[in-house]
Specification:
alpha/beta; 2-enoyl-CoA Hydratase, Chain A, domain 1; 4 domains; six-stranded mixed β-sheet; 12 strands
Length: about 500
């Protein structure tokens, strides 16, 4: 039987007991649930969980990111996992904070309205929640989404916008050329090749850059093994981090080093931080000038600084300028097939085209020797001396015989441009002078070129860009070095 009152309706004493039990449940509920329901006072929800909670969260992220960068070896999958964890936790905590403040402000507005008071601070808190929500959505779209997208490309798509890399063993397994982008796996493959070829002493670099994390691993591999580094074409961005790992650091006369600050989606590129270029260990071990590091750190990622040779020497970035005989030929793009190599040669020296058509067997033999010399890693000087001079000598001689040397500009073997004198050669000695402008000597030209304008050239000797030619049909003559001897026989 129910106590006195309306049938089936508990009395007020029972209601008070239930309310007491509900109050005890609230006290025992976890603070996470209580804040989510807005049960904390507004000042605790706003300042405690909102303001100071955010500071604590990002301080924790900074602390663990420092540990990650110092002690965790670069790996795309772990980096993607880090970004995914950071942004997932940030999203959950931010939503929890904003909902808690909004609901706590709502309770405060209701209580003050019942008391006949204004709820200015409660409404202000709700306005700040709305602003915070908009800012967080902006942060997700401008920072989180690009970082996670970049992480996916790195971890699962093998950095598709970055060129693939190639490793080439050269010069009797004493040199390795690294070609292409610096992406994950390059350091592993380089170490495997070094273990298979323990006599390697020089690493050639031909790269537009890539991931600084992988570059740091390559730096350590090269540094610990005491290898030298060499650039004959270009070494840009993160490739510079690899280059300074060399015990000795060389560049060719045409080699380019390019530097700027590193960047990653969501990070401020306007901060001229020295470690955005080289880390402290690299600076200290390599011995490069800190003034150079400061200058490189001033260059935004969208720009590139190409220091002059004297600057690279002054700031101790390079050991010296290598000549053409010091290292294997590199910097032209990898293991070319014979056809690719021929196209490269034809593009560089258009004058060989008529010669290749007129004497295909001789041209093919020389081309095969030249291509094989490149694949085996002969030095640029050796290739030029042994093969390129022979090809070009015959090509220029043939073109000269057919009076094909007129007003033009043709490249020489050192990637420079030399103007050809206007007009056609009117004599054999003039033809020899034309040839001598382009062939780095000494080389010997001999024989007869058959064709519509066949001529017997006898023998001519040319040194560098100073031509020395001679010889008639029945006798040979030679100009002395520097032209000190008179011309004994001229061709008309």
């Amino acid at each position: 039987m129910l106590p006195a009152g309306k049938p089936g309706v508990p009395n007020r004493g029972m209601s008070s007991a239930l309310r007491g039990d509900h109050s005890n449940m609230q006290e025992k509920r976890h603070f996470v649930a209580r804040n989510w329901r807005g049960e904390f006072p507004l000042w605790i929800a706003y300042w405690g969980f909102g303001f100071f909670g955010t500071i604590a969260l990002w301080t924790g992220f900074w602390f663990f990111s420092e540990i990650y960068s110092k002690f965790v070896v670069y790996h795309p999958l772990s980096l993607f996992g880090w970004f995914a964890a950071v942004w997932t936790l940030t999203a959950v905590v931010t939503v929890w904070q904003l909902v808690g403040i909004w609901r706590s402000a709502g309770r405060s507005i209701t209580d003050r309205r019942r008391a006949g008071k204004r709820a200015f601070w409660a409404w202000t808190a709700r306005v700040m929640v709305a602003i915070g929500a908009l800012r967080f959505l902006g942060l997700l779209s401008t920072v989180a989404a690009p970082q996670l997208t970049e992480g996916v490309r790195m971890a699962f798509l093998n950095d598709p916008e970055m060129p693939d890399y190639t490793l080439r063993l050269m010069n009797e397994e004493t040199e390795i050329e690294v070609i292409g982008g610096i992406k994950y796996g390059l350091d592993r493959d380089l170490r495997q090749m070094l273990e298979a070829a323990p006599r390697v002493r020089v690493i050639h670099l031909d790269s537009v850059g890539g991931r600084q994390g992988e570059a740091a691993k390559l730096y350590r591999t090269i540094r610990d093994r005491g290898l030298a580094t060499y650039v004959t074409n270009e070494c840009l961005s993160a490739c510079g981090n690899v280059f300074i790992g060399g015990r000795e650091r060389w560049v060719s006369r045409s080699g380019k080093l390019g530097f700027h600050r590193g960047t990653f989606p969501g990070f401020d590129d306007d901060l001229a931080d020295e470690e955005a270029v080289f880390d402290e260990i690299q600076i200290r071990e390599s011995g490069i000038s800190r003034e150079f590091v400061r200058l490189a750190a001033k260059v935004a990622n969208k720009d590139m600084w190409y220091p002059k040779t004297e600057e690279l020497l002054r700031y101790k970035v390079v050991t010296g300028i290598a000549d053409d005989w010091q290292f294997a030929l590199s910097g032209i793009g990898g293991d070319y097939t014979r056809e690719q190599f021929e196209n490269l040669l034809r593009a560089r020296y258009p004058v060989i085209v008529p010669f290749s058509a007129h004497e295909p067997q001789e041209y093919g033999r020389l081309l095969d020797e030249y291509h094989q010399g490149y694949l085996t890693g002969k030095s640029a000087g050796a290739l030029v001396r042994a093969y390129e001079q022979r090809i070009l000598t015959k090509a220029y001689t043939y073109s000269c015989a057919r009076r094909r040397l007129g007003p033009a500009r043709l490249p020489d073997p050192h990637h420079q441009t030399i103007p050809v004198s206007a007009g056609k050669p009117r004599s054999r000695i003039m033809c020899g002078i034309h040839i001598g402008q382009f062939i780095p000597g000494p080389v010997e030209v001999a024989g007869r070129i058959d064709g519509p304008r066949s001529r017997d050239f006898g023998t001519g000797v040319f040194y560098g860009v100073a031509p020395f030619a001679g010889a008639g049909r029945s006798s040979r003559a030679r100009l002395g070095q520097g032209g000190s001897e008179s011309l004994r026989a001229g061709w008309q």
